[in-house]
Structures are given as structure tokens and as C-alpha cells.
Amino acid sequence: MSVDGPVIRKIRLDLPHPTDTDHAGDLDRVLRGLKAQGIIGVQTPLSVVAGLSKILRTAEFRVTATVAFVPILTLLRLEPANTPSRNFGLAVDLGSTNIVGALVDLDTGATVGEHSMLNPQVEHGEDILTRTHFSQQPSNRKRLQVQAASAVSLIAAQLAIRLGISAGDICCISVSGNTTMTHFFLGLETYHLCRAPYVPVANYFPIVCASELSIDVHPCAPVIVLPNVGSYVGGDALAGVLVSGIHRHENVSLLVDIGTNAEIVIGNRDFLLVGAGSAGPGLEGGAVRHGMRAAAGAIERIAINPQTHAISYHVIGDGRPLGICGSGLIDLLAELFSTGIIDSRGKFLLPAKSSRVQLHDGIAEFIVAEAKDTATGAEICFSQPDIDNLMLSKAAMYTMLSVMTDAVGMSFNELDTFFLAGAFGAYITADKAVTIGIVPDIELSKFRLLGNSSLEGAKQVLLSVEALVEIKRIMSAITYVEMNESREFMNDFMAARFLPHTDLERFPSVRDRLGKR
Amino acid sequence: MSVDGPVIRKIRLDLPHPTDTDHAGDLDRVLRGLKAQGIIGVQTPLSVVAGLSKILRTAEFRVTATVAFVPILTLLRLEPANTPSRNFGLAVDLGSTNIVGALVDLDTGATVGEHSMLNPQVEHGEDILTRTHFSQQPSNRKRLQVQAASAVSLIAAQLAIRLGISAGDICCISVSGNTTMTHFFLGLETYHLCRAPYVPVANYFPIVCASELSIDVHPCAPVIVLPNVGSYVGGDALAGVLVSGIHRHENVSLLVDIGTNAEIVIGNRDFLLVGAGSAGPGLEGGAVRHGMRAAAGAIERIAINPQTHAISYHVIGDGRPLGICGSGLIDLLAELFSTGIIDSRGKFLLPAKSSRVQLHDGIAEFIVAEAKDTATGAEICFSQPDIDNLMLSKAAMYTMLSVMTDAVGMSFNELDTFFLAGAFGAYITADKAVTIGIVPDIELSKFRLLGNSSLEGAKQVLLSVEALVEIKRIMSAITYVEMNESREFMNDFMAARFLPHTDLERFPSVRDRLGKR
To answer: From the CA of B438, how many Å to the nearest CA of chain A?
Structure first.
């Protein structure tokens, strides 16, 4: 039995029948069989022992044992060897807005199904702070735990139905989320998470049984919740590091999860710095009137023809648009700037270069989609205050990136790779992001979109017991950097409130393109 | 932290408060404190994590951690360090008739309370075979499990009330019983226990949480059930070996648990043989009309004056007698024989040497207590059929002892010590037992009464994690000897159906005493 491998493994056992000279107990016989395959010291829940004798005899002592390798070797299940049986785990990205589950075939490593749903906790607040406040009552804390567990159960049930298996066939779960979300998931207090000195109940969470959390999969399925670095850097960020592999390389790379709460990791195999801060809600559509999450109906790509100023866009799900998601907003801001419709301060220029610029109650706005083309029947527009809010967020984002590279005394150009993680990072168009200066102006080939690295990290943890050990190594290597607090930060922030930046030398490719215009 | 010690230990932790430079999570802080004391790799149930933050702050980070050392290091509880707190475990002797619990102070090793009750399972059969038959229905198996668990809960509650503690303060349980009883206790099948090749569901039982068995002590209290050697040799017998220490000595000793089902172990530090067999119900009062268990009202000691034939006896509890228990029956048979009232075949001699010998419906009987002196108002007597049954049991017992010493090629005189274990063994009078030939005629100083070694072994397991390891060493050293099957056995058995034995050379001290008579 190799040391690394999935956290749950199916072991075929051809056991000798009991005889007059070999009357070892049934459980002892099974454990002897596992021991012969190098699996020693296996614990057995009573529920498994209780059904053991019947299964052994029904199966003529040819059985398949399901063994969990975390937190301790545990015999989860015994099945007749002649019944088909696959080895499934559920990876969960526990977002504050969306919960995404991926069913993983642990033998092949393949994702055999994915399902997402709105986090039912949004009922108690869209943002995490409102939910944290709500959770101060123990009964509310319990409510949030039950909601998260129910959502995971529902996702498991959906995926099981789709695969024609029983939810009970899912024998392990791994969960990746930010620190507050994982605390909610486990029913833990968050009171001290948001008060100095910002102490979580736990950074390393115990691995618990699904039944302890009332999640409807195999009752003894281990539920692995990825650890946190602290209040502000959760398991989702660690999952990102794991997936990016920056902690394994000689050259220094940077990983950023762009969003309302941004986490940035910079480092290599020798050091890792992590910083986290708020970029404001502009990037996730929260402070933009027609902003929305990246869901069906969201405009995710926008281009404006430099000559005709004709607009073209792509809507997620290919229907009529409902609003604009983060990547669409970045495209839009970049295109408005590139085509000279707005200036480097992000302000609309008059006379307007496009007939789509209009005044509405004295406020300039750009019509992205006309009323006749939208799903709502109302026009989708992008106003001066929307731009201002987005500019604040992009400036905060860029400033945080600068703080992190400054912290290691490096320029952006020295980075080996610039990883963009998170749901947002999956759809971003790097050159547009460079144009508005939300990310630095480096070779476009250095950008790597990681997609949902939180979910991907959770999958890796299911597929390799070493991955969890690796996460723990990342945790012990990582140093937290405070941001948003220094005077220097404020100066940098002010300078970043231009398109792409006050200091054009920092954005030579944008400067060159603008020069040609 | 020394390696050996109680299975549950209380660890005092003076933890630093969180600061801006030390914002480790609360659980991480506790585990760091334990690690500093050499306790590494501690698991934590979610229920403990959930209450952690509040306790730490209430207690100003000075706390007492309760850590279980089996089956894996587990943090069971955190208490403010300034509240008094003792460390309790419950040892249980799970007998088919009586369940005895002893509350042990794990810090001092002292037994601070003992409570026993009738096993409520007797409702489904006094004898184990009837209960085994009853348990074939899964619902009945559940019923037996619940009854055993409830009895243990009741004993825990009784002892807790007596000590002024809460049952939840009891943080571990160890249970010693025969193989069938421990299977019942864990709700396991016994179908194959009594069918060739006599396979238990498990010899080594998993250590489970009290809550899994619905036992009302600390919900995460580990419940350690002593392992079996097989169907016929249970954890109670292994406890006896542990307590006797025969497996640690150079000289060969023998240990016997006298009763309906007798277990005999012979050996030393190099080898251990175990045999088990039925001696019939005579020794526990079951096949004797006025026989009874060793409980209040039982005559446990009997002497007959050799000159006057006046009878004197001692009653357990000092009231009027209800019947005669095993040790009383042995005394009685020995005295009747010594005083010549019965002959070496166990038959009453006529003319009767005592006026207490009467005929009743043509059957001779000896009046032990007259009607006016008993608790029932009816006379307590000992008839010829009673004697015949007792003779059968004593012959079986002696024969099994012979088989075991023959198996190792030793004579009884070569034994270093002859241990008598079990409730029965606690009260036996060795010289009387020798007189009737139920035990061999060896120096009386070689007999050692172990008392309830099943309970004592369970206590040792609570007090020393090494004790459980030692039991496992005993198990791996032990060899099972089949008895009751050979022709030789039958010959020996026939020869042993005399007082003390056909071959008086085997009982020189009895022969000499008889000679003087």
C-alpha cells in the first residue's frame, strides 16, 4: 500500500473461511487481511462491526473494504467483492454566495459531476459581517451550521441521483472556504474572528464524521475542512497556493484571488507572504447599479469598436442580459478608456464620443444594452458613480498587489507567474485588466487563470493524503502581512485611482497603446 | 508526560493570551500547550471545540484539559483550572447474573465506590444460551444491548450521586465479561459464537464512545471492552491472568475461575494454555434444590462438629438463611464427608450418624437449617440428588484441572501458585475444597483467592494504558486447549466422582486426616 493516495481507498480482501484451527473473530479476520496489505492499526466504528458477520458470509469472505486514511485509519464499510462499487468523494467550495460541489471518482481522479447552489445562509445577510453579527446568538449559529450542512447534503443528493448512486456511497468530503464560512460550517463561534487580535476558534480543524454535522452521506465519512492561516486568510486561499504550486518553485510568483475580499500570496519554495484586504464591493458588482454575480444573464465580455463605437457583448447562458458581472465590468471600463469615452480619471468626456453616453438626472451614463434587448425590459447602463466605485476597488486591488511585492523588495516584472484565482479570476481578460491597471503591466503570458482553485484544492485533498500534509507545510511557511494601515498605503492608493495609474511608466504597454491612439 | 499512566489524564495548561503577534486559534493554542507537555497529535471532537473559546476566556486561559490516551489521543474536555476536578473512570464486571461497577479515582488509583445490580438481561433467560437464542432477532439483540447499557448508566448514576459528582464527570469505562456478554453489550451477533467453528464477531473490540452505546457518562468517554481469546475464553478470563500475573513469572502457576463455566489458565512467562468447559450448574447452586447465588441470605460457611454433629453456619448479611451458595455447598459436602455422614461415593450412610439425616419420600436428606430458623419458614436441606449433582460438577472441575496440568506435563505439586478467581473463588475455603477433591491436594499456602479478578482487571486497564497492551500480549501468548472431548477425559472424570478421588494417593492430606478419624 503506497503511502500517498486518496484519503479513502477500496481494498479487495479474499479472506480464508474460519476453520477448527483458525477461529479468529470476523473483525480480526478482516483486520488481518488489511494488515497483510500493509494497512495496520485500523479502527472500526461499531456500526461497521455490527453488520460484518453477515456480509462476510453472504460474500463467502470475498469482500471490498472501504478504508479511510484520515484522520486515523478507519474501516468505513465492507461490501461483497462481486458487487460493483466505485469510490466517491465530494469536494466543496464553500463560498459565502455560492456553494459548489464536485463529485470525484477517487480511483481515477476524475470529476464525474458538479453542482452548485446559492448558499442558503444569504437569507441572514448577503455579506459576511451581517451573518457574523447574526451568528452571535447560539441558536442562530446552529441555524447557519444546519443551513450549510443541508446545502452540502442537497448537493450530494443531486450528484448521487445524477450518477445513479446512493448519497451513502460518498465516503468522504473536503471543504474549502474562508475562515468565517468554515467556522459557520462547523458551528463555531465567530465572535473573536472580527475583534482584535482576530483569533479564530481553530486554524486546524478536527476531521469530523459526516453524521456529527448531519450531512447525509456515509455517516462515518470523514469531513476534512481545509485549515486557515488566521481570520483573514482561509482554507480557500491555501487551496489556491496548493493548486498554483508557487510554494514548490524556485522563482517567486504571485497569486491573487480578486474579489470584495482579496487575498494575495507571494513567494516561492523558500518563503510565502500572504496579505488580505478589502477591495470594496465594486469588483463583484455590489457597488455598481447593474452589476451582478457571474451567473446566467450576466454580461461577462464586452468589446467597443474603436472606430464605430459599436458595442458587442457575451452573456453567460447566451440569453438576454440581466446585468454585468465583474469580468464584464473590467472589460467595459477598459474599453471606455481605450476608446477615449472616459479619461484617465475615469470621467466621461464631453462632447461624448458615443451616442450611448447620455445624461440622466444630470449624471452621465453609458448604455450597455438597450431596453429592447435586455431580459428585464429596462436598459443596462454604467454611470459615473458606478465608474467611481469600480475605480476605488481597482485602486485598492492594485495597491495591495504593490504592498505585497514591495514587502519582498521585488518589482512585478520579476515575478515568474501571476496567478488569478477565484470565480472572478476564471473569467478575467488579462489585457483588459492591465488596461485599467487593476493588475500590473507584465507580459500577458505570465498571467495564469486558476479558475475555482478553492474547489480544485478541495479535490486534491481528497485525492492525496499528502496534499493535506502539503497544506500544513504551506501554513507553517506562510507569514501574514498587514495591509490597509500605513500612510504609504494611502499614498499608493491615491496614485492608483487613475487609468491605468498616475505613473504611466509602470504601465508601458498601455502607454504605448494610448500613444498610438 | 510518562508513557504509562491512566487512560484519561487531566493536564493543567497555563496558556498565553492571544496578542497582535500571537493570534493562533483557540484550539491551536490549547494543542500547542499540550504539545509543550509532550502530548502530540491530539484529536478533538467538535463538541469540545464548540465550547472552547468561552471557557478559555472565562478561565483567563488557565485551564485543565482532560485527555484520553486511548484509542487515540483525544481532548475530551476543557475546564477552568481553578475549579476542583477529579479524574474518574468506571470499571465494570459484566456478569451474566450480576453487573458490578467500581468508580476509580484515576489520579490516586483508589476505588471510591462500588455498586452492583442484577443484570436486567436475566429477564430473557437466566442462562446465556437462552439469551443467545433470544438475541437472534435483531430487535432483541438491540434490546439486550440497551439493557446492558442502561444498567451501566444506572450504576454510573448511583456512584456519581454517592460521590457528589455528575455522571458526565466519568470520562472512561472499561468492561470485562465473557465473550457472549461483551457481544451483547456491543449489540453484536452471537449466532456464530455457539456454532462450529465458534467464531466471535470480534476478539479485539474497537474502543467506542459512550454516546455510541447510549451510556450516560461523558459522551466522548472511551469505552474499552476487554478482548476475548475466542468464544469460550472471554475478557474476564484475560483480566484474571492480568491480575494474577502468572504470565510474568518464571514458575508455572494455574488460575481457575470456578463456576458453571470454568476457565483454567496454566502457564508462566514463556507459555500460557487456556481451557474452558462446563462444570455443570451444581457449583453455583443451580442444580441443588436449596442452592442459591452468593447474595444476602445465603449460607456461605458451614461447620459440623465432629463429635456432636452440631451444625453452625454463617449467612451473608447476617440474617436468617434463604439457601446455600457455592462456598457453603463445598463446606457442607466436605463436612458431611469428614464427619462420616456420607461415604466417599457421596452417599448417605445408614444408620445415620446425625439426627439431621432424614428420609423424605424415600430420599435421604440432611437438614441444614430447621424451618423455625429460616427466612422462608421452610427447612433448608441437602438431599442425595443434590449431592449427586454437586459431585458431578466437582468431578468435572477436577478433571479439567487435571487435563490442563497433563497438557503441560506437570503435577499439581509443581505449581507455584493456584489462583482461585471469580465471585465463587473469593469465598471458597481451600481446605474444604481439597477435602471434596474439587481442587488438588497441594500445600494450602499455594492457594490464592483473587476475588473478582474480572472487575480488578477492568480497573487495571483504566489505570494503565500498558495494561491493555499487556492483555494483548497475553492473548498472543495464549493457546487454547480443547477439553471434555477425549475418552481419557471420561476416564478421569469417572475416577473423580469420589470424595476426594478414587486414587487417594492424589490426596495425601485428606487420606491422612481420614486415617486419623
So the answer is: 31
C-beta atoms of A49 and B23 within 8 A: no
Q: What is the mean pLDDT of chain B?
A: 92
- Checking phi first, is residue B489 left (phi over 0); if not, alpha (psi -120 to 50) or beta? alpha
Peptide bond into B120 cis (omega under 30): no
Rounded mean pLDDT, B33-47 = 95
How far apart (Å, rounded) are the C-alpha atoms in residues A178 and A232? 8
Peptide bond preceding B84: is omega within 30 degrees of 0, i.e. cis? no
**What's the average model confidence in pLDDT over A478-493?**
80
Q: How far apart are CA A79 and CA B128, in angstroms?
A: 31
HSE at residue B300, side-chain half, CA atoms within 13 A, is: 18
The residue written with cell numbers 470525484 in the block is A104
- Using a CB-CB distance cutoff of 8 angstroms, which residues of chain B are in contact with residue A43? 71-72, 206-207
Chain B CA closest to residue A72: B72
The pLDDT of residue A234: 93
Could you tell me the CA-to-CA distances from A32 to A16, A29, B201, B229 in Å, in that order?
Answer: 11, 5, 14, 15
Q: Which residues of A touch B208 (CB under 8 A)?
A: 45-46
Note whether B192 contacts A: Cβ–Cβ < 8 A.
Answer: yes
pLDDT of residue A350: 86
Contacts by residues B116-123 (CB-CB < 8 Å, ≥ 24 positions apart): B116/B155, B117/B151, B117/B154, B117/B155, B119/B94, B119/B95, B119/B147, B119/B148, B119/B151, B120/B147, B120/B148, B120/B150, B120/B151, B121/B96, B121/B147, B121/B148, B121/B184, B122/B96, B122/B97, B123/B147
**Cα distance between residue B328 and residue B319, in whole Å:** 15
E strand or H helix that includes residue B392:
helix B384-407
Task: Give the residue on A whose Cα is nearest the Cα of B206.
Answer: A44
Label residue A349 by pLDDT band (50, 70, 90): very high
Write out residues 103-142 of B within 8 Å (CB-CB) of A. Answer: none
Chain B: residue whose CA lies nearest to A74: B206
Task: List the single residue in A with minimal CA-CA distance to B30.
Answer: A202
B62-68 vs B8-14, strand pairing mode: antiparallel
Nearest to B23 among A31, A191, A230 (CB): A230
Q: Does A190 touch chain B (CB under 8 A)?
A: no
How big, in percent rounded to 5, are the helix, strand and coil portions of chain A? 40, 25, 40
- Peptide bond preceding B500 in cis form (omega within 30 of 0): yes
* Position A517 pLDDT exceeds 90: no
| Mean pLDDT over the full length of chain A | 93
Are B50 and A20 an interchain contact pair (Cβ–Cβ within 8 Å)?
no
- Which own/partner contact pairs does A189-193 have at CB distance under 8 Å and 24+ positions apart? A189/A135, A189/A141, A189/B50, A189/B53, A189/B54, A190/A132, A190/A135, A190/A141, A191/A136, A191/B53, A192/B18, A192/B26, A192/B53, A193/A132, A193/A231
More confident residue, A107 or A352: A107
Asked if B189 and A45 come within 8 Å (Cβ–Cβ), the reply is: no
- CB contacts under 8 A, A 14-73 vs B, are 18-20, 22-28, 31, 43-46, 49-50, 52-54, 71-72
The C-alpha atoms of residue A183 and residue A196 are separated, in whole angstroms, by 17
Cis previous bond, B18, omega within 30: no
Residues of B in contact with A205 (CB under 8 A): 49
Q: Contact at 8 Å (CB) between A483 and A277?
A: yes
**pLDDT class of A23 with cuts at 50, 70, 90:** confident
Which residue of chain A comes nearest to B73, CA vs CA? A72
Inter-chain CB proximity B53 and A189 less than 8 Å: yes
> Hey, CA dihedral for A92, A93, A95, A97, is it positive or negative?
negative
Half-sphere exposure of B99 (CA within 13 A, CB side): 25
